[in-house]
Amino acid sequence: MKEFKILITILLFLFLNKLSSQTKQFLYEYRFISDSTKMDSVSSEIMALNIFENKSEYFNLDQFISDSTLLVNSKKGLMPMPTNKNITNERIEKTINSEKIKYVKRLGFTEYFVDESINLKWKLYPEYATILNYKAQKATTEYGGRKWIAWFAKDIPFQDGPYKFKNLPGLIVKIEDETKSHQFILKGIKNFTDDFIYPELNNYARVELTYQKFIKAYKNYRINPVGDMVGSFPDQTDGSGKFRRGIDIFREFEKYRLDEIAKDNNIIEIDLLK
After folding, report:
1. Domain span holding position 232
2. How far apart are CA 142 and CA 119, in angstroms?
3. Region 211-215 average pLDDT
4. Are residues 82 and 161 in the same domain?
5. Taking 90 as the threshold, does the pLDDT of residue 246 lie above it?
6. Residue 110: is its pLDDT beyond 60?
7. Do residues 152 and 262 both lie within one domain?
8. Which of 7, 63, 149, 189 is the most buried (most CB within 10 A)?
9. What per-residue confidence (pLDDT) applies to 253?
10. What are phi and psi of 61, to 5 degrees?
């Protein structure tokens, strides 16, 4: 069932996009453990890495499908709600042959565009494995408060990889942290025939800032995740005829969001929680 779901997700993505001879698309399965108190609970999502001539773009496949659908419907005058699935809602744009990246993250009703500079220090080893029929070499680095083990394929001549990882002499085809809380495994490769443009929605407040300022915003969000929703819950009567104050509904939702955040205690850049 899990493999069938992954296949359907990939096929739906290909339906929503045309394919480019100048652009490569790499599809990764991202496995992760959100709650460190439940190390046997593993989630799985499909992430895409599109590599262009001068840049690359990394994003969540389900989020792309949802955003594409919302954009198409909004042009028809329809206003459907975004997906309520709890998925990884971040994008990363990397500039080829540069340490600069643009990290795009949604928190509540705000979309943050974060300027970063990434300079990973890799150590290579004379150890090899076969991944997706490619010979891959082992390398290690440290980033985000974690130690990472990567496998890169020189036969795929892109110094890139999933998430913020890059600058190895070949594409990263697998990478995981030492605790196996976060793992990316290459599952497929495609060609594009048209330029790729990620759908831009206008239903989020756009904020551009440095990584240091984003850290502050991120920590504030985890403390007060519904601050921008104060006053948005009206008094109402439920289906049983019981009257409920808007402030009480708001407090219930606030507790729910804080409980969800408390379970999300094993994030990929774990040092953000320090």
Report:
1. 225-273
2. 11
3. 96
4. yes
5. no
6. yes
7. no
8. 63
9. 85
10. -65, -45
Say which CATH number the domain at 171 has. 2.50.20
Token reading at 229: 């929703």
Residue 22 near residue 192 (C-beta atoms within 8 A) = yes
**Spatial separation of the C-alpha atoms in residues 198 and 55, rounded to whole Å:** 13
- Domain boundary (192, 207, 238) is at 192
Q: Do 236 and 181 fall into the same domain?
A: no
Residue 147 shares a structural domain with residue 257: no
User: What sign does the CA torsion over 173, 33, 212, 148 have?
Assistant: negative
Q: Of the candidates 171, 192, 213, which is a domain's last residue?
A: 192
Please name the residues in contact with 73: beta carbons below 8 A apart, sequence gap of 6 or more: 79, 80
Tokens of 90: 């971040």
Q: How far is CA 118 from CA 57, 68, 101, 251, in A?
A: 15, 29, 7, 39
117-122, long-range: CB < 8 A, 24+ apart: 118/143, 118/164, 118/166, 119/167, 120/165, 120/166, 120/167, 122/150, 122/167, 122/168
The total number of structural domains that make up the chain:
2
* 30, HSE (Cβ side, Cα atoms, 13 Å): 21
Q: Burial level of 36, CB count in 10 A (0-12/13-18/19+)?
A: middle
Same domain for 108 and 23: yes
